[in-house]
Amino acid sequence: MPEAGKASAADRSKFFASLSLFLSLLASLGLSWQSNSNLADCVPLFWSFALVMQLAGYMFWRSQTAMRGRVIIALAVLLHAIALCGQPMFEDDYFRYLWDGYQVVANGNPYGVAPESFFADARVPAAMQAVLNGVNNPEVPTIYGPAAQQLFALAYRVDPGNERVLRFLLAACHLGLIALLLRLERVKSLDLGGESARKFPSMLPLYVLNPLVFKEVALTGHFDFLVPLGLIAAWFALQKKLPLLAGMLIGTAIAAKFVAIFALPFFLLARLKPIDSRPEELIFSKHIAQCVLLILGTTAALALLYLPFLGATDFAGLSVFANDWRFNAGMFALAETATNANTARILGGTILLGVMAFSAWKMRGSILSVPIVCIWLYAALILVGPVINPWYWLWLLPFACLTRQRWPFLLGSVLLLSYGHGLYLLSDSLAPYQLPIWLQCIEHIGIVLILLWQIRHPMRRFTSQP
Description:
Layout: H1 3-36, H2 43-63, H3 69-84, H4 93-107, H5 126-134, H6 146-158, H7 163-185, H8 204-208, H9 211-219, H10 226-239, H11 243-256, H12 264-269, H13 280-306, H14 316-324, H15 331-338, H16 341-363, H17 370-383, H18 397-403, H19 407-414, H20 422-425, H21 437-454
Helix pairs in contact: 1-2, 1-3, 3-7, 3-9, 4-5, 4-6, 6-7, 6-11, 7-10, 10-11, 11-13, 15-16, 16-17, 17-18, 19-21
């Protein structure tokens, strides 16, 4: 290509990158403004801003071939600051987080006693009484793990009942995750895909500019990203031959949300590639030692985090969640309608076990396969479940930055349709958390089409590759 042609193409690329970045920031400002306005419950307006942000983010990713890490971090900081200027939208889970933080500090533990037991308690401070009045399902004890509870307690100690302080702490942790993903992109030893990463644009802009990430983390205050934060840090530590540290990081992720435990078997299967012609017996013994240290680290972290609540934790809240809650389910709802709840659970469990078995077979013990295994593992866990909340997608979305898989970003945006339920559509014909049939069809048909598009060709290698 002539030099003039190259310059012209570069100029066009810079123009589209600048335009798409401007549109992304404009959409994020729109979402933050909407959350503070009297249109905060207007779902169509939210969808419009989210669509602009999604398309602009993808256009920005397509137009750039390389970005300096400090530019990505600066962009992430700016977007988190914009979100923190807003307030939680379409969500009230943060009331439970704030209440749990108060319970940890004031009473030593948040478990076992439902919030409704404190409605008539005169000892509850006025600020926390206002929080208590906003807690949803107050008859159900908390279901959140001890690692998350310590974060809630820290927010209470800084400023009791202040949701913006809690969101600030979560935003700081999330920026740590983004910095970790950026660090991993620069680790040449990972060799993600067997080709130079410089040939492929960074996936981080797709993550940083994603409307689901913007909405669910700093704007709304969900902490589900702590699962991939712990697991990705553990994956990195394991490659640095630090299995005890990796186990402690996995244990911390499990203590944040129990779903992290589903990834543990694949960490135990993962082996570093031998760098010499050592005997197979020695390699095997090294792997066994690695597994022992990994389990020890996981057990130690769980013991330390659960120790402050020893004897106080129970599973009453989790039991209610597993048995009674239903929202936005696709396959589970169809199976439950056709048969019953137990059969639907058995079918979902069978599919999940099948995905896990297939993943274990395809990864062939390669540590580089762990990120893509986590993507399919958590996608299956979410999509076969009785409750599909959009923030659950944060369990797997950061892994997509390491595998250069694009479909999780697209599917995550489709899940934002689930906010169009009766509570915000203000329809007399719908219950508060009921989704209209036509919207469920659009959402779940979209999910199926995206999955079919992704698996249209058999995977030649089950590793982290473009």
